[in-house]
């Protein structure tokens, strides 16, 4: 192990370096202390003025929100007016198209009915009005047949013979021929 001699440890350079180190260290400590105090001062100042700054920011936010709402409502009103105008135009066009389509549909329906009626007539199928007329005629005939049956089923009244007619040589009244009954369909 090597021992240092006391003369080398006390050299003027080492003594100067030691003084320089302690002066530099003191200076760094002092600067750090000042920075720390400045930070604490800034923090304190921010706390004091923070409330006022916050309130000012809130006021600016309220003002900005009101302006934004006003602009948005104006824009919304303009857009709403344009949309309503477009909807009215579209409604008119839809109505026109609907009217045209209804007219075309009615025309197509008429053509179809005419062609079906023509085809049925060629096949000999009676029209609905003809079938209705025949049905009414059958009902009238049924009523007449029923009336005739009712009168035929009653026995004919015989008139009492008068003496004068028998004496004079008059013929006796002819008997009513029996009617033939037909079964109901």
Question: Can you characterise this structure?
Answer:
- The chain has 185 residues and is mostly helical.
- It has a domain at 19-125.
- The protein has helices at residues 6-9, 12-123, 128-153, 163-168.
- The radius of gyration is 64 Å and the shape is rod-shaped.
- It starts with 5 loop residues before the first helix and ends in a 17-residue tail after the last helix.
Overall body shape: rod-shaped
E-strand count? 0
Ends apart, CA distance between termini: 151 Å
Helical run tally: 4
Q: Sketch the major β-sheet.
A: none
Helix-residue proportion: over 70%
Mean pLDDT rating: 78
Cα-based radius of gyration, to the nearest Å: 64 Å
Low-confidence stretches: none
Proportion of residues in extended strands: under 5%
Helix-and-strand structural type: mainly alpha
Pattern of helices and strands: HHHH
Short description:
With 185 residues, the protein is mainly alpha-helical.
List keywords for this structure.
185 residues; mainly alpha; 4 helices
Q: What's the arrangement of secondary structure elements?
A:
Blueprint: H1 6-9, H2 12-123, H3 128-153, H4 163-168
């Amino acid at each position: 192990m090597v021992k240092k001699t006391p003369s080398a440890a006390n050299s003027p350079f080492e003594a100067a370096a030691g003084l320089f180190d302690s002066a530099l260290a003191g200076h760094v400590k002092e600067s750090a202390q000042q920075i720390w105090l400045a930070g604490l001062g800034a923090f304190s100042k921010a706390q004091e003025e923070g409330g006022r700054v916050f309130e000012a920011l809130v006021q600016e936010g309220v003002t900005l929100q009101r302006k934004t709402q006003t602009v948005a409502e104006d824009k919304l009103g303009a857009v709403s007016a344009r949309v309503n105008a477009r909807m009215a135009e579209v409604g008119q066009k839809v109505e026109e198209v609907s009217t045209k389509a209804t007219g075309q549909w009615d025309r197509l329906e008429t053509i179809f009915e005419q062609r079906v009626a023509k085809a049925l007539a060629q096949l000999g199928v009676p029209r609905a009005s003809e079938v209705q007329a025949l049905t009414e005629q059958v009902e009238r005939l049924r009523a007449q047949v029923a009336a005739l049956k009712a009168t035929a089923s009653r026995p004919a009244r015989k008139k009492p013979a008068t003496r004068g007619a028998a004496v004079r040589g008059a013929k006796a009244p002819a008997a009513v021929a029996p009617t033939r009954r037909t079964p109901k369909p």
